[in-house]
């Protein structure tokens, strides 16, 4: 599996349209979605040309198609009539990887489909289990079906043989109760073409994904990971964030390099309208071809976090986009996107 900073042909997304799920937040979620899409496409104001990757957007109904076409006009989005339960394509879409033949030669992309059980059977929605195979068919890619439960947000890869994940999620009995830690690790290595799995213990408070790694630690370069640090005693994740940083700094990757850990501020305490702590994270960003889109939450640390992440991705433009209403559904921009890499056999990657 290529690292996310490798070139993409496209990104797969799903138009937010389920009023019964989003209720009064739906217009704000759609606004955030459109802002994300604009940032990904990155239109050159001088020429009108697209500098970023293509948008491939699922629409579940004729009305949703009409609404999405209107909202995304001018961005060159391709719309696909595919039903889905909700917009979390990081977890329900296929994971795209390079095909490597027995002789070591590179083929094209393959689409990997994992079993999906609604994040440990907490949110089982119609059509979500079929999203992966439907996208593979529309993408015209061969499909590889894996025999264990895994969501895309549960793993991070460096493109050089290292997978980063959490015990809280992958070892949770609500995912693969019949498999031991060693068996899960072996399956992850085989599925992603990896030689080493690094385990962080746990994730953020009230994260219904059971500690997905993409909300707490992200590879940003070979041997380099970004995580968060707390700036306030009121941060409900202060202790766990400190523990995550300490764990990461004790790790080495598949090539034997000690991990370099860069920290950015945590959003601190972010609450929903009922006063419940939300699993807000700045590292749930999406790395597009020319931009990095960082979720923001209307809190004091937003600007500092966007600036800090911008210092990491010096070759891209870093853009903060409000995501608090998206987070009400359980995640942010990385959670709702799935990149389709440019195949390595096109010569775009080394």
- Gyration radius, rounded: 19 Å
Based on Cα principal axes, name the global outline: globular
Number of DSSP helical runs: 11
Number of domains: 1
Beta-strand residue percentage: 15-25%
Annotated CATH homologous superfamily: L-arginine/glycine Amidinotransferase, Chain A
Multimer state: single chain
Report the structural category.
Answer: alpha/beta
Contiguous uncertain segments of 5+ residues: none
| Helical residue percent band | 25-40%
Protein topology:
Blueprint: E1 8-14, H1 19-22, H2 26-41, E2 54-59, H3 62-71, E3 78-81, H4 89-92, E4 95-100, E5 106-115, H5 118-121, H6 131-139, E6 143-149, E7 156-157, E8 162-166, H7 167-170, H8 181-192, E9 196-200, E10 218-221, E11 224-229, H9 238-249, E12 260-265, E13 286-287, E14 291-296, H10 302-312, E15 317-322, H11 324-327, E16 338-341
Parallel strand pairs: 1-2, 2-3, 5-6, 8-9, 11-12, 14-15
Antiparallel strand pairs: 1-16, 4-5, 7-8, 10-11, 13-14
